[in-house]
Design a protein that fits this description.
The chain has five helices and two strands; from the N terminus they run H-H-H-H-H-E-E. By secondary structure, the chain is mainly alpha-helical. It has one domain (15-177). It has a two-stranded antiparallel ribbon. 27% of the residues are buried. One of its GO terms (cellular component) is plasma membrane. Keywords: Cell inner membrane, Cell membrane, Membrane, Transmembrane, Transmembrane helix, Transport. This is Tripartite ATP-independent periplasmic transporters DctQ component domain-containing protein. Residues 35-159 form the Tripartite ATP-independent periplasmic transporters DctQ component domain.
């Protein structure tokens, strides 16, 4: 299994990262399954003689948000996020290491900033409720907050790991690109 930068994603990870990854993937899979079922219900409602339920569309949109942001941190750890691979062709391991550390640090800072904004939304939107479900919007913003927090922590960990251990070698080799 390889990531966007050609490194292996099956390398050893601490147990707590594996547990958090499984929880995040489980939440995302649940939200995706609920999203799928709600879209089927919406499609079926068109052909039934009863009125539609407006909450199904609203919850489906919320599930899409939750799926998207819940797995953001997982993408950082598995190196599966969208990335430019130009640096991977550079032969100097110091340059590759520097760019990967810098990129991971930037991801961590941006994730922390978004987590802070999601926290602000959770704090300030407590009185507001969604139109159909009457769900407090604090709950809507909980999963983006957790996803961005996970992204920030995982980005920081990746930056430290790349700085200390080097960048994983491209597929087909077993050595680490270190300076």
């Amino acid at each position: 299994m390889t990531g966007a930068h050609g490194g292996t994603t099956a390398r050893r990870r601490p147990a707590w990262i594996s547990v958090i990854t499984k929880v995040e993937l489980g939440l995302a899979a649940t939200a995706l399954a609920v999203l799928f079922l709600l879209v089927l219900v919406q499609a079926a409602q068109r052909y039934l003689p009863v009125g539609g339920w407006s909450w199904t569309g609203e919850l489906a949109r919320f599930c899409l948000v939750w799926v998207t942001f819940t797995v953001a941190g997982v993408l950082v750890t598995t190196d599966s996020h969208i990335a430019l691979q130009l640096v991977d062709n550079v032969k100097n391991p110091k340059v590759v290491r520097f760019v990967r550390v810098l990129a991971s640090a930037i991801v961590a800072v941006i994730g922390a900033g978004f987590a802070a904004e999601a926290w602000e939304l959770m704090s300030s939107q407590g009185q507001l409720k969604s139109p159909s479900l009457r769900m407090p919007l604090t709950f809507l913003y909980l999963f983006p907050f957790l996803g961005f927090l996970s992204t920030a922590v995982r980005g920081a960990v990746a930056a430290v790991v790349f700085a200390v251990r080097g960048v994983p070698a491209p597929v087909g080799t077993t050595e680490v690109q270190s300076a």
